[in-house]
Design brief:
The protein is of the alpha+beta class and about 270 residues long. Helices cover about 25% and strands about 25% of the residues. It has helices at about 15-35, 45-55, 130-150, 155-170, and strands spanning about 5, 10, 60, 80-85, 85-90, 105-110, 115-125, 180-185, 190-195, 210-215, 215-220, 225, 235, 240-245, 245-250, 255-260. It has a 5-stranded antiparallel sheet with strand order 9-8-10-15-16. Strands 3, 4, 6 and 7 form a 4-stranded antiparallel sheet that branches. It has a 3-stranded antiparallel sheet with strand order 5-13-12, with no helix packed on it. Helix 1 (about 15-35) packs antiparallel against helix 2 and helix 3 (about 130-150) runs antiparallel to helix 4. It catalyses: Release of N-terminal amino acids, preferentially methionine, from peptides and arylamides. One of its GO terms (molecular function) is metalloaminopeptidase activity. InterPro entries: Creatinase/aminopeptidase-like, Pept_M24, Pept_M24_MAP, Pept_M24A_MAP1.
Length: about 270
């Protein structure tokens, strides 16, 4: 039996949840592999090609190639988002060779066996980076962990938003509310929207079988975005550094299960 839809919110069936776990692991494995292969001199279009090859080899489908929402100049036409330095969301791959110390965010969503999964990671290319870059990346990771810890049956979406916003604000980062997390299931973007700040006790009440893509992101000194001429890539308005962290999680009977962690035996193809 398939899952049920309440309004525009999807609750997955047992069989869909099992497929979601497989899709989520695939996303985690691809991101892990791409991160391991990326070094100074890697071109963003190489990253896109690697991702395409791995998605197709697994029999999965890209959520991005034909994606054409109202806020983009679609279709996107690529297999992964590659956002560098002051770019934070929807970074369109283009001819650019990464340099030592670049802050790269990778965002990947795919569909396998009728169920989607979505994840993002930020890291420093070729080294440890600056203390501020490490702090920025660490803060988005802590915000994500706080949201996952708050996700359980009976909790409200506002509880998760509040946890994310509290971590980002305490670290001194402004919070943009234009883009945030979202429901996910048989399609990539669903209700409910999960803003990166909010009031606890408000919003949709979580229940087992709901999947959410939680995605804290931050810019060092602004909450304002600008859009590149490509119509997709979103950058900080001041040119400051940015970071983005995301996992797809499943609400279970007693908490939340992260679905997009890489498998223990994932290896980097030659």
């Amino acid at each position: 039996m398939d899952g049920i839809v309440i309004g525009m919110i999807e609750i997955l069936s047992t069989s869909q949840i099992e497929r979601a776990r497989v899709a989520g692991t695939l996303v985690g494995d691809i991101l892990h592999t791409v991160r391991d292969r990326t070094r100074p001199g890697t071109d963003l279009l190489e990253i896109d090609r690697w991702t395409r090859e791995m998605i197709l080899a697994a029999g999965a489908e890209s959520c991005y190639v034909d994606y054409a929402p109202s806020f983009g100049r679609g279709p996107f036409g690529h297999w992964i988002c590659t956002s560098v330095n002051d770019a934070v969301l929807h970074g369109m791959p283009h001819p650019y060779r990464l340099a030592e110390g670049d802050l790269l965010s990778l965002d990947l969503a795919l569909t396998l066996d009728g169920v989607s999964a979505d994840s993002a990671v930020s890291f420093i290319v070729g080294g440890s980076g600056t203390a501020e870059d490490r702090r920025l990346i660490d803060t988005t990771g802590r915000a994500l962990a706080a949201a996952v810890a708050a996700a359980r049956p009976g909790a409200r979406i506002g509880d998760l938003s509040h946890e994310i916003g509290s971590v980002l604000t305490a670290a001194g980062y402004p919070v943009n509310l234009e883009f945030g997390g979202h429901g996910i299931g048989t399609t990539m973007h669903q209700d409910p929207h999960v803003a990166n700040a909010g009031r606890p006790g408000r919003g949709y009440r979580l229940r087992p079988g709901l999947m959410l893509a939680l995605e804290p992101w931050a810019m060092v000194d602004t909450d304002r975005l600008i859009t590149d001429p490509d119509g997709w890539t979103l950058r900080s308005a001041t040119g400051c550094r940015t970071a983005h962290c995301e996992h797809t999680v499943l609400i279970t009977a007693d908490g939340a299960e992260i679905l997009t962690s890489p498998s223990e035996n994932v290896s980097t193809p030659v």
